[in-house]
């Protein structure tokens, strides 16, 4: 769910969660951060609904700064990050082969 302001979030919590907290950890549905109490989760979730200009390349999560986005990306999409890096390396190798093919006659 996306909440446009704290009041809407508070109303949701009161309605859907009876306004209670428990001793269980509370993971953020947007970035995976696990908080130890519900109040902390409430405060944290608001950060996702304020000015966050940077968007994750793999999902809809937004971040306010590049460090937060990098942390999210590594923690939530580690396999995709590795695959993306490998694809870049393959592209570089392919460019090198093409360049070699272009000039191999001059090297002989």
What global shape is seen?
A: rod-shaped
Class of secondary structure makeup = mainly alpha
Report Rg.
22 Å
Strand content: 5-15%
Secondary-structure element series: HEEHEEHH
Average per-residue pLDDT, rounded, comes to 81
Largest beta sheet, briefly? 2 strands, antiparallel
Number of continuous helical runs: 4
Provide the low-confidence segments as ranges: none
| Biggest sheet strand line-up | 1-2
- Percent of residues in helical segments? 55-70%
Oligomer: single chain
Tally the beta strands. 4
Distance between the termini: 64 Å
Topology:
Layout: H1 6-17, E1 26-27, E2 34-35, H2 38-48, E3 54-55, E4 62-63, H3 66-76, H4 78-107
Antiparallel strand pairs: 1-2, 3-4
Key terms:
single chain; about 110 residues; two-stranded antiparallel ribbon; about 60% helix
